[in-house]
Amino acid sequence: MNDAFTLIVGAGPVGLVLAWRLVRAGHAVRVFEREPRLEPMLRSSTFHPPTLDLLDEDGIGAALHAAGRKTPTWQIRLHETGERAEFDLATIADATAHPWRLQCDQSVLVNTLEAWLHRHAPGSVVRGAPVESIGQDNERVSLHWRDAQGALHLEHGAFLAGCDGSRSVVREAIGAEFAGTVYPETTVLVTTTFPFEAHLPGLSGINYVWAPDGTYSLLRLADVWRVSLHPHDDESAEALMQPERIAERLAHITPAAGKAPIGEVRPYRVHQRLASHWVQGRIAIAGDAAHLNHPKGGMGMNGGIHDVFELAESLLEVAAGASPDRMLTRYQARRLPVMRDDIIGQADGNRARMWESSLEGRRRMLADLQAVAVDPARARAHLLRTSMIDGLRRSKSLG
Ligand SMILES: Cc1cc2nc3c(=O)[nH]c(=O)nc-3n(C[C@H](O)[C@H](O)[C@H](O)COP(=O)(O)OP(=O)(O)OC[C@H]3O[C@@H](n4cnc5c(N)ncnc54)[C@H](O)[C@@H]3O)c2cc1C
After folding, report:
1. Domains in the chain, please, with CATH?
2. Ligand 1 centre from 167 Cα, in Å?
3. Each residue of 333-347: pLDDT tens digit?
4. Half-sphere exposure of residue 198, counting CA atoms within 13 Å on the CB side?
5. Which of 1, 41, 147, 303 is the most exposed place for a label (fewest CB within 10 A)?
6. Taking residues 367-395, what's their average pLDDT?
7. What distance in angstroms lies between residue 272's CA and the mean position of ligand 1's atoms?
8. Whose CA is nearest to atom 16 of ligand 1?
9. What lines the ligand 1 site, CB under 6 Å?
């Protein structure tokens, strides 16, 4: 087999978006994915406006819209009184073709892109193929992957992209540190078909809520609500995950929810980390392999997609004759500072705001946010930042 232009490790949303961009520009890719099939597991559900703008080609955006829910407003809310600050994305309709967040399970993006690649570049995605080692010289890259029978295979390409998530072997191979912290709290994700919108007046599709006993969030997908709960100080995540305990906590949100049908229940911990460098020679990393941030605000996957649009552009310029060194250096110079300065800090601030425990502090923050929401210029600035439009624009001015 001829060498691929780019070998990609990981068929998550980030690796597959990169594969799609390169294949549609006429280049051969090989994507190696450890898992034999995509496990049904809700992770990312928020697509921000500029990401929807980027994905709006080849029917990809249309497939997301068919499966997701358009959410034009989002709010921060006080549970006790229902007082809220609500932001309307129509305010930035001149800056995006999609002035809404789309709530859609990230697996829809993975399945849609994989099907597209299957049609346009059959055999380019190899599942059940864990990558075990990576190498490079001045001319090309190589990797070894193992098949289900235990046989080891060698592949070559001109470039290699590590889109292999938080435990990236590619990051390790390029010797990057992944410094950061893990947040103390566990989050328990619960899905339910209970109609919160019929019980809580003025609810948006995305709601971050201060409650007397902590904080919770309510995100509405096409056919379920996704509720994020946290164990109390004296409670383990396992205890909170018991059906009667979940029923009790949902009843605190609104009494009738205590009898709600429960779907998925899953605990997770969150890290905040940034890889020290993203490029070495002909190898680059992107997405969760390069950065992890708190999911409050829904920016991890979106940031990874923005990375690989930039990486694809750099690689396509190399294919057209530009220097690989210069283009990959530019990729890192454009994306790393944005993830470090705009996204990781913003997500950390979103989390910190919702963990404020004093009513006085919450009221002060709510009043500040309400003042921003009703001031068109300030609301616009706030939405350009929180929708990741500012970060994307800034990245283009770097490197
Ligand atoms: C509960 C939760 C909610 C979230 N909500 C949001 C949100 O609303 N918005 C948002 O933007 N982000 C959100 N995120 C973050 C988002 O899910 C991740 O940022 C996103 O999945 C990263 O995509 P990725 O392709 O970089 O990595 P992954 O999705 O982790 O994909 C990496 C792939 O690489 C494969 N792989 C790993 N090692 C190897 C190997 N050695 N060989 C071959 N394959 C390998 C893995 O099997 C996996 O399929 C959320 C995360 C969580 C946990």
Report:
1. 4-179+271-396 (3.50.50.60), 182-270 (3.30.9.10)
2. 10
3. 999 999 999 999 999
4. 6
5. 1
6. 97
7. 14
8. 301
9. 9-15, 32-35, 43-46, 106, 130-131, 163-165, 169, 189, 268, 287-288, 295, 298-302, 304
Q: How far is the CA of 252 from the centre of ligand 1 (A)?
A: 32
**Whole-model pTM?**
0.97
Q: For residue 95, report the distance from its CA to the centre of ligand 1, in Å.
A: 28
Report pLDDT digits (tens) over 291-332.
Answer: 999 999 999 999 999 999 999 999 999 999 999 999 999 999
Q: Ligand 1 center to residue 372 CA distance, Å?
A: 33
Size (the chain), residues: 399
